[in-house]
């Protein structure tokens, strides 16, 4: 299978990096060997021109249930982890502004009054100065590279915030659907328990009349207690699911927004193109964050290289000085000063070379992390695509199994009532029907969860297309 090594992206990064500063090195080519496109299931393929990029599908368009939309919106507004991610972006932005300010002269105004006395007559000296405090001439790109590294750090933090938002959307949707599945499984268990209790009451009457054996009575009782245990288990799962959802949302969720059963139409990914290129991974927030981290690490190499060259700092001021306060701003009192300072590193005990080596190693680590992010993204998408077809087939098979088990149960019940079958045959039919119904719920939940995983893996979900962004 043909592979692509992201050479186009690496070339673009290198061109962008080469213009940042004289000493900033070119970015090495990324070597994340992955296939050009994913193996796509035959079902659901559409031409590339007719497909909508998943990264362009807003999460409100992805989720069809209005209750789920409201729960996700509340989570985006109140979730504490997402709030921390947003605050981290603001902190990174402030850090970038601080570093960027070093590229501009810092102006300051100073005023001074000096009085000298003793055995000599008292004298006074007044002065006011407007000056530049230690402005560095960035001849070798040190300050420029540090500013570029801070900018890329801010952009990486912003992408990390988007990745956190996408992960939160997926977690909330998954928890909401899991709660619906537990509610449906609990309803099935309760219906089954009620049916078994009716059979147990009938068996008890027949046993009292001597029309049935103690074995049959106890077999019916085992069904009742088993169903009762399932009701208790699913009740606990429902309570835990509500607590987990409240934690993700950041506040208790109104009962009107909670699901009562699993709706297989709550979410879904639009039809994917037949030859969906793997370059769409470059739009994933985590991959974009790794790219910005790589750019920042590369800029740090330029700053470490510039440390080998002289640094020139300028300090100057212009103002007025006078022996009398009343004559401070009169003509003939103007003064100025200009103090350039050149610092040339000669012997640092290997410190500068070690700093350069560390910056280079950090750049190589960032490159490896960038390649790893792309490879991990490809695997996530490939796994989700592989499961999408098999889970659909499992759901179809389970639906057929439930229908067949229901017919078998009805026939077995009729034959038992007519005295044609033993109670063991009816008992087995009841167990098969109950197991098939619960299995169908599990497969439906797995299919919905895989759709959400595919949507997240393709980088969609954090774009807001309808309404106001929370």
Ranges with pLDDT <50 over ≥5 residues?
Answer: 6-21, 43-52, 465-470
- Calculate the mean pLDDT score and round it: 78
Largest sheet, strands/sense/barrel? 4 strands, antiparallel
Strands, total number: 6
Major β-sheet strand ordering: 3-4-5-6
The CATH level-2 architecture is identified as Up-down Bundle
Kindly, what is the distance between the CA atoms of the first and last residues, rounded to a whole number of angstroms?
44 Å
Assembly type of the chains comes to: single chain
The chain-level structural class is: alpha+beta
Radius of gyration (CA) equals 36 Å
State the CATH topology. Answer: Outer membrane efflux proteins (OEP)
Name given to the CATH homologous superfamily: Outer membrane efflux proteins (OEP)
Number of domains: 1
**Topology pattern, helix = H, strand = E:** EHEHHHEEHHHEEHH
Task: Choose one word for the global shape.
Answer: elongated
The level-1 CATH class? Mainly Alpha
Q: Report the β-strand fraction as a percent range.
A: 5-15%
Total helices: the number is 9
| Helix proportion range | 55-70%
Subcellular location: Cell outer membrane
GO molecular function, one term: efflux transmembrane transporter activity
Protein name: Efflux transporter outer membrane subunit
InterPro entries: MdtP/NodT-like (IPR010131), OMP_efflux (IPR003423)
